Structure formats: structure tokens, C-alpha cells
Amino acid sequence: MLRSLGSGTLRSLCIRRNRSLPRAFSSATRYLEPPAADRVPDRVPLRKQLKQEAKALRSHKRQRKETAEASKEEWELTVGVEIHAQLDTETKLFSRASTSTSDVPNSNLALFDLAFPGSQPVFQAAILLPAIRAALALNCEIQPVSRFDRKHYFYQDQPSGYQITQYYEPFARNGYVDLYDYDGIAPEDGERVRINIKQVQLEQDTAKSQEYSPTTQLLDFNRVSHPLIEIITMPQIHTPETAAACVRKLQAIVLSCGAVTTGMELGGLRADVNVSVRRRGEAPGEHQYDGISGLGQRTEIKNLSSFKAVEDAIIAEKNRQIEVLESGGVIEGETRGWAIGSSETRRLRGKEGSVDYRYMPDPDIPPLIIGEDLLSSLKDTLPTAPDALLTLLVGSEFNLPIEDAKPLIELDNGARLEYYHDVVDILRSLQVDQDDKTRASLLRVASNWVLHELGGLVAKHDRAWDTEIVPARSLAHLIDQLQRNLITGPTAKLVLATIFDGDRRPVPQLLEEENLLLRPLSREEYVALAESVIAMNPQMVEQIRSKNQLGKLGWFVGQMMRTGEKGRVEAPKAEQILRELILS
Ligand SMILES: Nc1ncnc2c1ncn2[C@@H]1O[C@H](COP(=O)(O)OP(=O)(O)OP(=O)(O)O)[C@@H](O)[C@H]1O
Ligand SMILES: [Mg+2]
Ligand SMILES: [Mg+2]
């Protein structure tokens, strides 16, 4: 390790950016300028000018949309994605240095990670566990023998001048991911589309650059050589929506099997999209990829960090390529960039080919041999896949609507689902005396409370999810009391908020001490309450009666709950009395 070098040396590593490097330019405002002919003279008042600009922008957008719609039929889009995901490991790929990135910059490094002369790679076998789990979850064939190669390029984020990757013989091949309509694929893809995965390979991550000033970049090498998997799909995606759905699904799968650190939002996963178009009904394109021929020239948009960016960047790049081709131009093989909020991709550099990278087998790293015993034990312990979980949750046992089942699975890396199961288990034990139908209906009620009531509080207060915010036991008791009509819905919500704010009294005790248990109102009390709200709102009563506006009854129920004694008015009973008094 580098401790002996003195941490100051490494922590202050920074390099000066070559001033002649092309600077990123902002294209975000480009379409705010109206065409030259419409340009507004200086003396036009600002408000009018802004109005005209907004009008020009709208008409430009409309034109683009119309062009896009018209060309949709005429042009076929093809997309292949590459995902880079950080494996959840303790050490780096070829050294025992820690993968923790939260420590001070440049503190987690071994000599090899910085390519010090004389240092040697030492493959860390434990990183294979999450890597193989991910590949199995993606239905890949794990290769008994695979090898590492050097991919050469020169940039500040890679100290050795090459990245160690698996180019010729990756450790996993021939997988697939199934995307369903509920994953958000484009309607034209029907109920299900299968995207084949060409391979999954192991490789090193790069250092993190941070702009310090326009001419200076700071470098943090903590991330360098963090083990990554690169997942490469075949060019079989034909719409931007399906591409975004594919990235979302790949992320969900590798997260659900515990293979990777975090999702895109926290930077643990990044996507590159490769985009080409070809005119339908014309001679097939000249390009091919791994047996798929007839493709157009691809460009690659690197480093997308959100699903929306994936979709937006593909739309923009597709439109750009169509515009170029329709005006007689040719598409260059390029690496392009995408800035959040932008409307255009922008050229970064010409696309490197395998020749530019001068791939060569790494002579310092022996072949990777993966034994059957390791494989079968990993297969046996692979957690249930998201699709299988979904089938279970919407199936006859849980009977959840798909709109609830999906977020339950996807939220908080599976922690929300685990919490839901805890609530359900406790609830089942509290409800042993109830009939099967009641107990079954509570599974749906519980998901509603976990997702919408508790989830709503979490979102409103912008808190990170934590199972202890409201212990599963408390929520289960709350639902149990509600189901037994011992408290009203509003009381249950009130108590939930109290627990959310930190009250740790057991629910039965809390209800008792705060005098929140339902003391049912008598029929006479309901009638008196209803009559008083009716008397105060004669016009609304008239509207309900004359125009049959029954929806307004709900408003009266709300009034009764507000004016009645807290926690004692039950909505169904209130509505019943209102119907009797107003409608009969
Ligand atoms: N003509 C094409 N149109 C659209 N996508 C394509 C086309 N040709 C290849 N692809 C996609 O481009 C990706 C190529 O990834 P691969 O890692 O094999 O090569 P690369 O992009 O040159 O490598 P890297 O970017 O890692 O240096 C795949 O996802 C593939 O499906
Ligand atoms: Mg690649
Ligand atoms: Mg690529």
C-alpha cells in the first residue's frame, strides 16, 4: 500500500488540462434563438421579444416532432446498450486495496492501482462471486476458462495507459433479458420482447476527475480498478422507450441479486447507448455486429446516468442521424456526449475501433478458471428474480395490483419489499382468529400502507428509507386495530405520523394513553352531527337533490369528521346517515 509514500503526495494529485483541448460547449440554448429571418431588432420591448422567442421555440419543437413522427415509419432505429456496473466487493480487481470511495481522496490504493513500476496484478478471487451471480441472473453461460486483455488508451483517468478488460474471452456469454409491457417497453414491442446479451465481461473502473477550475482537474484514484462488469446487449432494441426499459431492467436484476453497489442515481451504474438508423425498404446497411447484419453506421453516446437521459439521448441522436442522412450527409462512427436537459448529442471524438485500442492478452494475468462446484453453489443461492417476485405478488396469494407490486420490488434495493413481508408476517400472527378472506384482504391493505401512507410520509419529509422509521411491528398493529374497527382511518394515519416522528410506545399503549380508541357514536349522535352540517350548507344539499350530484356526499362526510369528536366518526356510517337525510 502507498502509506509509506506520505498521503499528502497522493491527495494533492492534480493535473493541468491542456488548454487546446476542445471545451465542452453548451447547446441548451441553441433553439431559443429564432431563425435569422425572424430575428427581433433590439428596440422591441423585452416582453414581446421573449414572447416571440417562446413562439419560435414552440414552432421549432412542433416541427421536430412532426418530422420525428413522419420519419418514424420511414426509418428503423437500432440500439445496443453497454452497461458498466460496480461490483459490490471489498477489494479492487487486482489488489487488496479497499473499494470504499467515501474515504478521503487517494487513500485506498495499492501500488498496482497506480501502475507503479515493478508492481504486479494479484487477481482477487472473491470478486467472482457477485460477478457470476449477475451473469447467472442474466441467463448467461459461464465460461469455464476466460482471460484478461489490455485495452490501450491514454487519458488522465487511467494511470497505466491501458485498461484491463476481457475482450477476446469474457467470463460470460449468450444471456438474455426479457422485457414485459409492465417494464415500460414501447407499445409496438407488444407484451414481451427478449433482448439478447452478447457477453458480460470483467474490467477495471477508472479514476474520478473533478473540475477544480477551467484549467485544472483534480483526480481521485480511489475508484481506479474497482471491479466492474460490462454487460453488452445485442443491437436488438428499436425504440427509445424500450432502451430505457432495458437499462432499468438490467439495473433491477443486478441489484436484486446483490451483485452491484448502487443504481444509476448514485453513480454505481452507467450506460452507453449505440444508435443507428436505416431507411426501411432500402438496401440493407453495410454494418454488422456479431452475426446481425444490414445495420446502419452506429454512433455511441457514453456515460448516461439516468433512464431519462438514455431515452432522451437516443431520441435526439436518432433525429440528428435522420436529418444528416435526409440532407445527403453520412454518419460518422463517433463517440458522442449528452448533457442533462440538452436537446442534442454532441461529438466528443471519432469512435475508436479495436485497432486503435491495440487489444492484447495481458501477459501478467493467468487465465480465469471457474469450476462447476462454485457455479452450482451460486446457482442454488441466487435470490428470486424480480419477474418471479412480481408474478408471486400479483398472483392469487398476494393479489396486489401491478402498480403496487412493481414499486414494492424496486424501491430501496428490495428493502421495501422485505419490510412489507415483515409487516405481513406479524399481521398474519395477529389475525389468526380472523377468517381466511379477511386475512387475505389484509395483504393488499398492508401494501397500501407500506407504499402510500408510510411511503407518502417518507417522501414528504424527504427521508431516506429505513425500516426503523416505523417498526414493522407498529405498522402491523395499526392495520390490525383498523381492520377490527377499534380505530378509524384518520386515527390510524395520525398514529402513523406520530410513530414516524419518533414515538416508540407500542401501538395498543399509545392508543390507550392518547384516548384514541374508537368509542362508537350512537345513531342519534350521527343524526345530530349530520343535521348540523346539512343546515349549514343548504345550497349543496339542494344540488345533490336536484342534480343528483352524489359525489358531493363525500364532502359532507369530510365535514362530519372534521366537526365531530376526533377519531369517533366512521366514514361509512356517516355516509349512510347522510344518504338517509338528504336523499330519502
Ligand atoms: N450498427 C449498430 N447499431 C446500433 N447498435 C450497434 C450497432 N453495432 C453494434 N451495436 C451495439 O454497440 C455495442 C458495442 O459494444 P462493444 O463493447 O462490443 O464494442 P465497443 O462499443 O466498441 O466497445 P467499448 O465502447 O467498450 O470500447 C453493443 O451493444 C452492440 O449491440
Ligand atoms: Mg463495450
Ligand atoms: Mg461501446
From TrEMBL:
One of its GO terms (molecular function) is glutaminyl-tRNA synthase (glutamine-hydrolyzing) activity. One of its GO terms (biological process) is glutaminyl-tRNAGln biosynthesis via transamidation. It is an enzyme of class 6 (ligase). Residues 418-582 form the Asn/Gln amidotransferase domain. Belongs to the GatB/GatE family. GatB subfamily. This is Glutamyl-tRNA(Gln) amidotransferase subunit B, mitochondrial. Subunit of the heterotrimeric GatCAB amidotransferase (AdT) complex, composed of A, B and C subunits. Its EC number is 6.3.5.-. Keywords: ATP-binding, Ligase, Mitochondrion, Nucleotide-binding, Protein biosynthesis.
